[in-house]
Amino acid sequence: MKNEIKVAPMHKLIKRAGAPRVSEESALALGRALEEIGLKVAREAIDFARHAGRKTVKARDIEIAAKKVLSR
Amino acid sequence: MKNEIKVAPMHKLIKRAGAPRVSEESALALGRALEEIGLKVAREAIDFARHAGRKTVKARDIEIAAKKVLSR
């Protein structure tokens, strides 16, 4: 399945974090990692929305889910 | 500071996770969360690269850093 997260923004993110040099493969790796984390967060968020009786995922569902995924 | 991660791919990611409906605000929230997580991972990766005596961040630095950030 194709990645939603592109390489160029990942390259910029690693630069912004202070890297003197960024390899193409590291930008690809960050995209893969964030894609996987993003899917995990989204799945948890969908559960929260469903639990609240909503079909629409809202910002607060994502925020709670992100905290949960990070603290695990 | 402007976000590197755009809204459209976040919308698609939440859809792919199985959401029947995705609000604009939730896509924005996921972008903010992944941007923050991405910066954390990148900062750790830079430390690993530096520790290995490299100026260039490599894929393995990102992979170790992502595991570390997620397991905390």
Concise overview:
Two copies of one chain form a homodimer. Chain A contains three helices and two strands, in the order αβαβα.
Structure class of chain A: mainly alpha
Largest sheet of chain A: none
Overall geometry of chain A comes to: elongated
Percent of sequence in beta strands of chain A? 5-15%
State the helical fraction of chain A: 55-70%
- The poorly predicted ranges of chain A are none
Secondary-structure element pattern of chain A, one letter each: HEHEH
Distance between the first and last residues' Cα of chain A: 26 Å
Number of strands of chain A: 2
The largest interface is: A-B, 47 and 46 residues
Average pLDDT value of chain A? 95
Using the CA coordinates, give the radius of gyration of chain A: 15 Å
From the structure provided, what is the oligomeric state, counting identical versus distinct chains?
Answer: homodimer
- Count up the helices of chain A: 3
Please name the defining characteristics of this protein.
homodimer; 72 residues; mainly alpha; 3 helices; 2 strands; elongated
Any chance you could write out the topology, listing elements then pairs?
The structure is a homodimer of 72-residue chains.
Chain A: H1 7-16, E1 21-22, H2 24-51, E2 56-57, H3 59-70
Could you please describe the fold and organization of this structure?
- The structure is a homodimer of 72-residue chains.
- The first copy, chain A, is mainly alpha-helical.
- Chain A is 69% helix and 6% strand.
- Chain A has three helices and two strands.
- In chain A, helix 1 (7-16) crosses helix 2 and helix 2 (24-51) crosses helix 3.
- The first copy, chain A, is elongated.
- The two termini of chain A are 26 Å apart.
- Chains A and B meet through helix 1, strand 1, helix 2, strand 2 and helix 3 of A and helix 1, strand 1, helix 2, strand 2 and helix 3 of B.
